[in-house]
Amino acid sequence: MAGTLALLLLGDERLSDYVSEISHGAAKAYTSAVNLAELYYKTVDKVGLQTAETWYFRVLNSNVIIAPADATLAREVSIYKSKYKRSLSLADCFAMALSIKEKATLLTRTATSRERER
């Protein structure tokens, strides 16, 4: 979710506990290549190319694990997108599918959840 990645890059205090756990190796952070692409294009649109480039390389050089959008994940994403239709974007469905695959906490701009039921 691009919104959460942006908040992370901006140092949002609500994410400080998660950042600390990741920094100390107590937790892992994941994002999909699709979510990274969403962060990039939205940042270009809202703030500009220079910030998008900076943030892109900050994520690449961080402890965040970037998962490829492979065929298996794409199938899961399609199932969630067909279920949630307009309530979740395709990129949000990638984030959800990845969090379920990795049994990870899904961080959103509004809430966190362990795993959503299929």
Give a structural overview.
The chain has a single domain (2-113), classed as 5'-nuclease (Rossmann fold, 3-Layer(aba) Sandwich), CATH 3.40.50.1010. Helix content is 58%, strand content 10%. The longest helix has 14 residues, at 33-46. It has helices spanning 2-9, 16-23, 33-46, 49-60, 71-84, 90-101; strands spanning 29-32, 64-67, 106-107, 112-113. α5 packs across α6 (90-101). The chain has a two-stranded parallel ribbon. A two-stranded antiparallel sheet has the order 3-4. It has 118 residues and is mainly alpha-helical.
What's this entry about, in short?
58% of the residues lie in helices and 10% in strands. With 118 residues, it is mainly α. It has a single domain, classed as 5'-nuclease (Rossmann fold).
Search tags:
118 residues; mainly alpha; two-stranded antiparallel ribbon; 6 helices; globular
The whole-angstrom Rg is 14 Å
Look up the CATH topology: Rossmann fold
Strand order of the largest sheet: 1-2
User: What is the mean pLDDT?
Assistant: 88
Report how far the terminal alpha carbons are from each other: 19 Å
> How many domains would you count in the coordinates?
1
Structural class: mainly alpha
Query: Which CATH architecture is right?
Result: 3-Layer(aba) Sandwich
The main pleated sheet reads as: 2 strands, parallel
CATH class: Alpha Beta
> Which stretches are low in confidence, meaning pLDDT under 50 for 5 or more residues running?
111-118
Strand content: 5-15%
